[in-house]
Every structure is written in C-alpha cells, then in structure tokens.
Amino acid sequence: xxxxxxxxxxxxxxxxxxxxxxxxxxxxxxxxxxxxxxxxxxxxxxxxxxxxxxxxxxxxxxxxxxxxxxxxxxxxxxxxxxxxxxxxxxxxxxxxxxxxxxxxxxxxxxxxxxxxxxxxxxxxxxxxxxxxxxxxxxxxxxxxxxxxxxxxxxxxxxxxxxxxxxxxxxxxxxxxxxxxxxxxxxxxxxxxxxxxxxxxxxxxxxxxxxxxxxxxxxxxxxxxxxxxxxxxxxxxxxxxxxxxxxxxxxxxxxxxxxxxxxxxxxxxxxxxxxxxxxx
Length: 279
Known about the structure:
The protein has 9 helices and 8 strands. With 279 residues, the protein is α/β, with parallel strands linked by helices.
C-alpha cells in the first residue's frame, strides 16, 4: 500500500511567502494573504479557505501557503483568508461565518490596486474550509433576518470542495469526533424563535441549490473526510439541479489534497483553472 502523506511531509517543505499580508478590518483575524502572479493582469483569483476542524489551535491560513504558491506559479492570484475558530473569542456561530463572508467581500477593495479580475473568482476550501467555501457560495440564499445576511455578496465562478465537510449532518458522525462532534453546538448555534433548524443557514447541503459549479475532490483513504461525504454531497447537489461532480483519488489521504505535486492537487488546480478560464 502506498504510504499516505503526513502533516510533517507538507509542513517540512521549504517556506514560501505571500506577496503581501493585508489587514482588511480591525480584528486580529481580519487579515488575508495575497499571492500575485507575474505580469500586469488583470489576474483571475482563487479565494482560499483553510481547514483545521474550525479550530485555530489545529491550523491557520499558513497551512495553505504551498498550495497558494503553486497557483501563483500557474498564473492565478490567491486571496488566502483567515477567520476566527470556534476556540477563539467571538468564533463559532455567527462569528466564524461573518468572518469568512467579510473576508471574501474585502477582496473587492484590493481589485484596483492589484489589477484583480472580479469577474473571474473561484474558491477552494480544504476540510472545514470546504464547508466554509461552499457556504460563501450559498450565502445569497440566507433569509433577510439572518445575522450573516449581506447585500451583494461576492460572486464566484465555482467552488472546489477539497476533502470538505460540506454536509454538517452527514459529517458529524463520520469524521473524527474532536473535529466536529465536540464543537458542533458552538459551530451551528442555538435554535431560536426565528431559526427552527440550526443547519438551515450553516450547512451548504441544506442550502442547495447554490446555482454554481461545484467539484468535490476526495481521497480514497482519507479518514478525516471520507470519500462518502463528497459523494453524498454531490448526489444532493445534483438532485437539487446544481452542476456538481465528485472525484475520488486513489492512494490519497487528507494531506495530499493540499500538497502540490500530488495527483489530487493537480486535479484541483486544473479544475480551478478551468473555472477561471485559465489555459
């Protein structure tokens, strides 16, 4: 059997750095890293959302640095966002969701300075970030009384759900307990008089159809986000009328999905380029 990659395999690679880290808001996590390719632009953009079980003690945006650098080398700008985890003050519901929504929309403020093409924006999210990336694509469906509702959300050309936990109900009993079940209530919030179902505005699977192209990429041997999750989410998305596909990559776990040089990452990068019209 092929040896699966470990986090040390990824994190031990030579360090790479973004073009610039931009503090777009007053909060400590109101920051994103911009990775600019060579050339004058206008540059197509990938909105990148890291995972880590929605917990900052597990991962922050720098875990995506190598993936961001690889996309930059392929001629794509990357906006790699940060957000509060459920283990940080104000994180969970609705803070974590508000953070990724504001971070996505903050991209607009950088477009003129860095010649970014806001008509060509696709997103990729890994693990918990796959859930959040699809939620960003779904937030136009939030009800008017939602605390996360925002007018004129950033439009995306598509989303790559990289080993994502996009269906919170299905994921809760499948992924590692400390990744979701233990923090589930903090993430989804409480039932209220205006919110009878906590998944209605937090789980992309309950917000379908998203009316956007979605591609789930899963590792056949991933025990954090088993392939059944990507397959199940894709079935639901297709049944709702969305343009959705799933790719299950053999001899692949969770780390390979964001590790340049792996088969899974090559598939994801090619999918993003296709969504953005980059040859």
